[in-house]
Specification:
This protein has 10 helices and 7 strands. With about 250 residues, the chain is an alpha/beta fold.
Length: about 250
């Protein structure tokens, strides 16, 4: 059996793929996720989609090394354009910004009927992805936040359903939970705390710079950032729960 080694981030994505599913990995780069899903017997079929020639060639080469290659297809094209309607059950899009991920889903809307699960890992702009789910009838069913090599990643999983459900009966507004993540808020992990600490740090630095500025327009921006810093402070205070101090 061929062995495929992938990052903790990609392994977490793989864990959300239901066994036997037909999976498309869009923006697959080296096709490592697709390879892993086949070699581990998780996916029944995989499609690795790539826009750019270099990564597309790398994906072809990688898939060629697999005994299971007859259950894989490597396709060059933009987003979901590489798929035919009804061809896959699960779509993964990882390692891109939330804006690009949602634009791929938007442009490929005609390929979504029949797709039962989306597994998305935005590098930035998680809020945009959660908002897209909410606006398009996809229910966020799970979220994971993890740290690997000093970088924090969020993985968002959605199925068709009651999009607003994960945001109900919580101690934060929908708008706030779209930013934080409703499941991540429930879990209150140390990684989530680290993420918001680093956001706080970033904004405090911007604030200090602006406070040195003599430009009149800086005043309005300072007020906005002070409000943001206050909000993040409140988030961090709530994340420092008793539950967490036992876990750490
Ligand atoms: N998904 C892999 C991962 O998470 O490790 C690779 C992430 S890599 C940073 C992003 C990949 O997406 C690149 O190989 C890039 O060429 C590809 N890409 C960017 N825009 C795309 C699009 N619209 N359609 C398909 N692939 C795209």
């Amino acid at each position: 059996m061929t062995s495929v080694t992938i990052s903790k981030r990609l392994q977490t994505i793989a864990r959300y793929c239901p066994e036997g599913a037909r999976v498309a990995d869009i923006g697959s780069d080296h096709a490592l996720l697709a390879s892993y899903l086949l070699v581990k017997g998780i996916a029944s079929q995989v499609i690795a989609g790539e826009l750019n020639e270099g990564p597309y060639q790398a994906a072809l080469k990688q898939i060629h090394t697999l005994q299971e290659r007859n259950r894989a297809s490597v396709r060059k094209g933009n987003g979901l354009a590489v798929l035919s309607p009804g061809e896959v059950d699960v779509i993964c899009v990882a390692g891109m910004g939330g804006q690009l991920i949602t634009s791929i889903l938007e442009a490929g809307a005609s390929k979504l009927p029949g797709v039962t699960r989306l597994i998305l890992q935005p590098n930035v702009g998680e809020e945009l992805v959660r908002r897209w789910f909410l606006d398009h009838g996809w229910q966020l069913i799970a979220e994971t936040i993890l740290e690997e090599d000093g970088v924090i990643y969020e993985i968002l999983v959605a199925e068709r359903g009651e999009a607003v459900l994960p945001y109900e009966q919580k101690d934060r507004t929908i708008e706030e939970l779209l930013r934080i993540g409703p499941f991540l808020w429930e879990e209150k992990s140390l990684v989530l705390q680290n993420k918001w600490r680093s956001e706080l740090d970033k904004w405090q630095k911007v604030l200090a710079q602006l406070q040195r500025s003599e430009k009149p327009e800086a005043e309005e921006r300072i007020k906005q950032i002070q409000a943001e810093v206050k909000w993040i402070d409140g988030v961090i205070a709530c994340l420092r729960t008793d539950k967490q101090s036992f876990n750490t």
